[in-house]
Design brief:
Keywords: Cell membrane, G-protein coupled receptor, Membrane, Olfaction, Receptor, Sensory transduction, Transducer, Transmembrane, Transmembrane helix. InterPro entries: GPCR_Rhodpsn, GPCR_Rhodpsn_7TM, Olfact_rcpt. It comes from Suricata suricatta (Meerkat). GO terms for molecular function: G protein-coupled receptor activity; olfactory receptor activity. By secondary structure, this protein is mostly helical. The protein has one domain: Up-down Bundle (Rhopdopsin 7-helix transmembrane proteins). It is about 75% helix and about 5% strand. It has ten helices and five strands; from the N terminus they run E-E-E-H-H-E-H-H-H-E-H-H-H-H-H. The longest helix has about 35 residues. It is globular.
Length: about 325
């Protein structure tokens, strides 16, 4: 493809994590296991929420959305990364690269919006518990979830369009594990100031705005918890938010570090590790965090396993 003296590449080459064959095989096995466990863990969380009527609440409705987003995000990056670990030629077509950027950026944006929505849900649960079921009704939950999905998708579409309108000339080597936004923008052979401004604006809208909402929600939550006189009451209120707060710190911290200052971005290795964190580690950790730190989920697991054990005993006899 070409226009005037500028040429657009048809294929990009992802340099990946290592050129050493033994290292690549070891990484393939490691990331394959982590990916499969992450997918299984998130689907088990979704299945558990569907099967246990006690978990049919707004919090677990949003957790279902979060689990589906985590699996989708990982799937937009990890399978292609695994294939490239065993391949000699690490090419990805122009259209596939654009699609990968759109989906990975979209799922990431949706996740940050969902975390802000979940913070509001926890705020209502702790600060206004008597009106919780009235405020967090099914209609509002559906609207909040839809807004999260739409905002992340629209931002991703805009970023993908303006990024892949840039002429890449003969630059086709992406020093990354995937078609990541900043890595692709750096390939352009023209001034990218407008793209960097767009990244900054979207970072403020889709990262800092939800982050500020999360921060305000937790300031109110902490203030309310401190006013509770009984130690048991404080513990119960804190455990209501502990899982979500842990996930928020993990997700928002890395994203703000990566995208809020494109010009002073991390090194290529740091960017790869950050992408791996979101693509592999976050989807793996979220089910564990919500299972280990959440009494309701642990109780549901025990109930489900007890029913399964009883069923197998009957079948055996």
């Amino acid at each position: 493809m070409g226009t005037g003296n500028q040429t657009w590449v048809r294929e990009f080459i992802l340099l990946g994590l290592s050129s050493d064959w033994d290292t690549r095989v070891s990484l393939f096995v490691l990331f394959l296991i982590m990916y499969l466990v992450a997918v299984l863990g998130n689907f088990l969380i979704v299945l558990l929420i569907r099967l246990d009527s006690r978990l049919h609440t707004p919090m677990y409705f949003f957790l279902t959305n979060l689990s589906l987003v985590d699996v989708s995000y990982a799937t937009s990056i990890v399978p292609q990364m695994l294939a490239h670990l065993l391949a000699e030629h690490k090419g990805i077509p122009f259209v596939s690269c654009a699609a990968q950027l759109f989906f990975s950026l979209g799922w990431g944006g949706i996740e940050f919006a969902l975390l802000a929505v979940m913070a509001y849900d926890r705020y209502v649960a702790v600060c206004d518990p008597l009106r919780y079921s009235v405020i967090m009704h099914g209609g509002l939950c559906a609207k909040l979830a839809t807004t999260s999905w739409v905002s992340g998708s629209v931002n991703s579409l805009m970023q993908t369009v303006i990024t892949f309108q840039l002429p890449m000339c003969t630059n086709k080597y992406i020093d990354h594990i995937s078609c990541e936004l900043l890595a692709v923008v750096r390939l352009a052979c023209v001034d990218t100031s407008s793209n960097e401004i767009a990244i900054m604006v979207s970072s403020i809208v889709l990262l800092m705005t939800p982050f500020c909402l999360v921060l305000l929600s937790y300031i109110q939550i902490i203030s309310t918890i401190l006013k509770i006189h009984s130690t048991e009451g404080r513990k119960k209120a804190f455990h209501t938010c502990a899982s979500h707060l842990t996930v928020v710190v993990l997700c928002y911290g890395m994203a703000i570090f990566t995208y809020i200052q494109p010009r002073s971005s991390p090194s290529a290795l740091q960017e790869k590790l950050i992408s791996l964190f979101y693509a592999v580690l976050t989807p793996l950790l979220n089910p564990l965090i919500y299972s280990i730190r959440n009494k309701e989920v642990k109780g549901s697991w025990q109930k489900l396993l007890g029913q399964f054990s009883g069923l197998t005993s009957k079948l055996a006899t």
